[in-house]
Amino acid sequence: MKIGGRELAEDLERVEAVLALLPSGERLAVDAMNRYDPDQAVHVAGALAPYGLRWFEDVCDPLDFAAHARIAELYAPPLAAGEALFSAADARNLARYGGLRPDRDVLVFDPAHCYGLPGYLQIVQVMEAAGWSRAAFQPHGGHLFSLHVAAALGLGGSEANPHNFQPFGGFADGAVVEDGFARPPDAPGIGFETRSALHALFRSLL
Q1: Catalytic residue at 140?
Q2: What is the rounded CA–CA span in Å between residue 52 and residue 79?
Q3: Could you give the C-alpha distances from 164 to 24, 31, 109, 198, in angstroms and in order?
Q4: Cβ-based neighbour number of residue 78 at 10 Å
Q5: How many other CB atoms are found less than 10 A from the CB of residue 180?
Q6: Burial class of residue 149 (count of CB atoms within 10 Å of its CB; 0-12, 13-18, 19+)
Q7: pLDDT tens digit sequence for 167-202
Q8: Distance of alpha carbon 124 from its chain centroid, rounded?
Q9: How many percent of the chain have pLDDT more than 90?
Q10: Which of 46, 109, 162, 204 pairs as cysteine with 82 (C-beta 3.0–4.6 A)?
Q11: Peptide bond into 167 cis (omega under 30)
């Protein structure tokens, strides 16, 4: 759930409303879209800590590694970072200076934004060398490419976002997400042909 666009008190009401609707054992993650300055981030993290969220994502400026480290010292539940970082050098600095914890935090680098699969593999290698497991990676994007990357590299998961980033967002037409799992399409390449609207767009351009 997105947070940071409203007053903190209202965001906390929204968090509590969603938590009240979730089935037993399910957890909520929140995404601040890099909204907060360092002091705001610390204040919000303190308010969110009692909820035991699945993760608190994109808390502050993605290149303010000192702020990330400060928050990680104060906020025990998982953090998520990396969506707005695009290179192995960025990843190395996050690992060195961001204070993130390989035993619980989540890495949401977007393969499509990281110079494709070669760049993403470099990021994976950098983070593995810094003590992270592939289970910590949850690629951003919610599209077929991220789903394929997660399956091929044995990552922890992949975002599912069928309503955004159109015409690329979402998995194959008719894909079923069941108990948190989705299967890549049995099709050549990335499987764009399994997305009828996207395939029609490509055909109109070529």
Answers
A1: yes
A2: 11
A3: 27, 15, 17, 13
A4: 20
A5: 8
A6: buried
A7: 888 999 989 889 889 999 988 888 889 999 999 999
A8: 14
A9: 81
A10: 109
A11: yes
What is the distance between the alpha carbons of residues 36 and 88, in angstroms, rounded to a whole number? 25
Catalytic residue list contains 148: no
Please state the length of the chain. Answer: 206
Determine which one of 68, 140, 143, 148 is catalytic.
140
List helix spans (H) across the chain.
8-21, 38-48, 65-74, 88-97, 116-129, 144-153, 196-205
Q: Mean of the pLDDT values across residues 21-44?
A: 94
Provide the token pair at 101: 């914890």
Question: For 58-68, how does the pLDDT look when each residue is reduced to its tens digit (9 = 90+)?
Answer: 999 999 999 99
Confidence of residue 25 (pLDDT cuts 50, 70, 90): confident
Q: Name the one residue in this structure whose structure tokens are 């890099």.
A: 34
- Scanning the structure block, which residue is given the tokens 């009401």? 13
